[in-house]
Input
Amino acid sequence: MSSLLVDDIGELVTNSAGEGAGKPLGIRRDVALLVEDGRVAWIGPARDAPAADRRIDAQGAAVLPGFVDSHAHLVFAGDRAAEFAARMAGEPYTGGGIRTTVGATRAASDDELRATVRRLRAEAMRQGTTAIEIKSGYGLTVADEARSLRIAAEFSDDTTFLGAHVVPAEYADRPDDYVGMVCGPMLAAAAPYARWIDVFCERGAFDVDHARAILACGQAVGLGVRVHANQLGPGPGVRLGVELGAASVDHCTHLTDADVDALAGSPTVATLLPGAEFSTRSPYPDARRLLDAGVTVALATDCNPGSSYTSSMPFCIALAVREMRMTPAEAVWAATAGGAAALRRDDVGRLRPGARADLMILDAPSHLHLAYRPGVPLIRQVLHNGVPQCR
Ligand code: NIG
Ligand code: FE
Output
């Protein structure tokens, strides 16, 4: 059994209540953390720290749980930088560019797709992300969705079947047939590699009846539900997610009081994706309204080549604090424990004995610096399953 002691931690964010814990981040000061076999084995005052095989000196810095990015589209080819530039010059975002990426993805080899996932996964890890959900959704044929998920599963336990991203061009005049195909052969080919099913429920993508049918088929074969909902305008997606017991409804940019009430009375997490509003020059979701209503809020990147080509959780935290009136503590919680809640996982997003030893050491004395020093690479070191990651 190998052991590693992270010593001289000035501020430890545990996201766990307990002796000496402050709220809501469960902050402990001047502690050490022992890792054994990839798990947190002990947390306590530095002076009581047990001996260990190896030691990392945090030099009084802040240590946080690794970020849990619960919404990312990493399996794709090509980019849409020109589309981004056009938006910054005034063009609206409609989701129409998804089909551009579908064309490039279908034309790519497995190895090209795998290299992109590996690159983005590594990029995210350098910025503190130690767990990341990965969606399909740029293949939209049986074979291309199945291979997207097969590749995603090489990098994450949280893989999501998003065959219902948009109706591909070849089915444009017969969406009912496409929905039948998604529920039939495509789901059968995808499900062995997927933990979740997702639908883009939005005008121009899938209406509520199609979305309900697809999500129900996924549930019937054991997949958990998540929904892309209320991104581009008000709509039924959030309430559909709540009705089906979704783990998370994502975007939540345009909400009515009824949507907020439905979320507040449910276990469904509202996952906010401020990178998408940044990159589409759209109004940000009203996080304050959700938090004040008692809704559990997560933050995620939505990393994808169209609406949000960032893998940076610190960037999302900074946006959430500056633009969405979340406190720094709320934003850090949402990016760690919130993401874990959105993925219904209790082994990540918190630092307590038994949790996965996924953590980051900051080049800063406090979690506040993540929003206070936007754009600065503050992640000094990342441990994933207790293993220090190369930079
Ligand atoms: O979450 N909204 C739908 N899907 C992605 C965007 C995909 C794209 O533009 O390529 C999203 O924003
Ligand atoms: Fe998305």
In short: The domain at 68-342 is CATH 3.20.20.140 (TIM Barrel).
